[in-house]
């Protein structure tokens, strides 16, 4: 098991196109080049980029109380779909979960979650806490419930079936997952401790439409080390299979944006000790199993 930074993205628009011509590891299409094809990813043209480093600049905001997480406690009916989209592994969550409260301007429907990670022995979170990267970051994506259409855009109509019994998970492949209470993936005892800021998608088109909620207390989730090792960024017929890893964007300046800490947040960023850092990187050796 290892520690994961937990975040909730609140998308304020439904206009999120699925961009595919970008990458993380080749110079011509890596995160520093995204702005060539996607002007809104250009760091000098837009000032609300994500991810950011979270540090001592946090401002306590007493109106940020607990989020209302509806349905996160339940074992929902039906199936969820886990898909390798090439840039990440995405779990489509179907209907039944929504988020409100905690200073959010409305109710948001929870539609999917996905992950950002490093290479097996390295770090992979997108946001950093006092410049410390965590091994992995999970994004739970929520959209304004008045925009029901991102789900249908993301849904895979064919299911694509599970193509092979091997663990090799190639681009376009999908596996069905039995729903489980999403609460199991969250820092259940510390949900009222979080940070809030206005930022962007961390993948093209980098739309500046995201209200980020970053849980202050990292959590342990189960994740198969084998699974992470065997996710590929290549398609089935490719000559050479390439691992999907290091799918995180670099840190952006806040440019004076307020970053709030919730009423109950403890501003733990002041207290990250070298020992904690050592521990965080060591836990990578003890990765468990994702529920697949
Ligand atoms: C989860 O559900 C239980 C009841 O089944 C409830 O008491 C508890 O408050 C819920 N937890 C959260 C965080 O919603
Ligand atoms: C606290 O957060 C709310 C909701 O995000 C925001 O509207 C308000 O301006 C913030 N308060 C202060 C004092 O910054
Ligand atoms: C994490 O990444 C940073 C650069 O982003 C690097 O300096 C550091 O050595 C990495 N740590 C580990 C344990 O890989
Ligand atoms: C969702 O989008 C599809 C086309 O992409 C459209 O046919 C449908 O009416 C939309 N549904 C809603 C609820 O907006
Ligand atoms: C998490 O919440 C528990 C219960 O409120 C509290 O005792 C603990 O200090 C919190 N953990 C952190 C790291 O803040
Ligand atoms: Zn993400």
Automatic annotation (TrEMBL):
<dbReference type="GO" id="GO:0008270">
    <property type="term" value="F:zinc ion binding"/>
</dbReference>
<comment type="function">
    <text>Reversible hydration of carbon dioxide.</text>
</comment>
<keyword id="KW-0479">Metal-binding</keyword>
<feature type="domain" description="Alpha-carbonic anhydrase">
    <location>
        <begin position="20"/>
        <end position="263"/>
    </location>
</feature>
<dbReference type="Pfam" id="PF00194">
    <property type="entry name" value="Carb_anhydrase"/>
</dbReference>
<keyword id="KW-0862">Zinc</keyword>
<feature type="signal peptide">
    <location>
        <begin position="1"/>
        <end position="19"/>
    </location>
</feature>
<dbReference type="InterPro" id="IPR023561">
    <property type="entry name" value="Carbonic_anhydrase_a-class"/>
</dbReference>
<dbReference type="InterPro" id="IPR018338">
    <property type="entry name" value="Carbonic_anhydrase_a-class_CS"/>
</dbReference>
<comment type="similarity">
    <text>Belongs to the alpha-carbonic anhydrase family.</text>
</comment>
<keyword id="KW-1133">Transmembrane helix</keyword>
<protein>
    <recommendedName>
        <fullName>Carbonic anhydrase</fullName>
        <ecNumber>4.2.1.1</ecNumber>
    </recommendedName>
</protein>
<dbReference type="GO" id="GO:0004089">
    <property type="term" value="F:carbonate dehydratase activity"/>
</dbReference>
<keyword id="KW-0732">Signal</keyword>
<feature type="transmembrane region" description="Helical">
    <location>
        <begin position="271"/>
        <end position="290"/>
    </location>
</feature>
<dbReference type="GO" id="GO:0005886">
    <property type="term" value="C:plasma membrane"/>
</dbReference>
<dbReference type="InterPro" id="IPR036398">
    <property type="entry name" value="CA_dom_sf"/>
</dbReference>
<keyword id="KW-0472">Membrane</keyword>
<dbReference type="InterPro" id="IPR001148">
    <property type="entry name" value="CA_dom"/>
</dbReference>
<keyword id="KW-0456">Lyase</keyword>
<keyword id="KW-0812">Transmembrane</keyword>
